[in-house]
Amino acid sequence: MAKEHYRDAAPCKLSEFVTPDRFRTVLYEQLHLPGGLTEIPVEIMLKKDTAKKLSFKVPRDGMLYGFARIRPTVKERFGAENAKLFINDWDDKFVMVFELDDKAEKAFVITADEVVDLLENCIRVPQQRSDAPKKFGKAK
Fold first, then answer.
1. Mean pLDDT throughout 33-37?
2. CB 61 within 8 A of CB 43
3. Does residue 40 carry a pLDDT above 70?
4. How far is CA 6 from CA 65, 68, 111, 112, in A?
5. Dihedral over Cα of 116, 19, 32, 103: its sign
6. Which of 62, 77, 86, 128 could pair with 46 as two cysteines, CB 3.0-4.6 Å apart?
7. Integer CA distances (angstroms), 91 to 2, 48, 69, 112, 139, in order
């Protein structure tokens, strides 16, 4: 069970690694394309209760994808050239797991509020625009 596997994960602030200005969402199909030179791929798994806190619709499976411009930070902190980041919902908290290029893992516990803030304030694909009412007249 994943919760047992990461039970010793150290708490940290998400902002130690990823901030909204350094994160962008992408569609699933785009995740497999190369990101920028300083980016690493990110997969975020949300449960329904967390997804309801967002101003945009989340797919039924709760999966969101993106890229974070943090490759230099990963290299500095973990000595890895490449990594992939997984952020998984654990109800009242999240586990953030870096899968490093040598298949080693570094896990941390972060808060749900930090993940919601990241997703609300990052650059999102057009399909994730907020469902705010339109400001112009009715269509004819």
1. 89
2. no
3. yes
4. 22, 22, 15, 17
5. negative
6. 62
7. 13, 10, 27, 8, 41
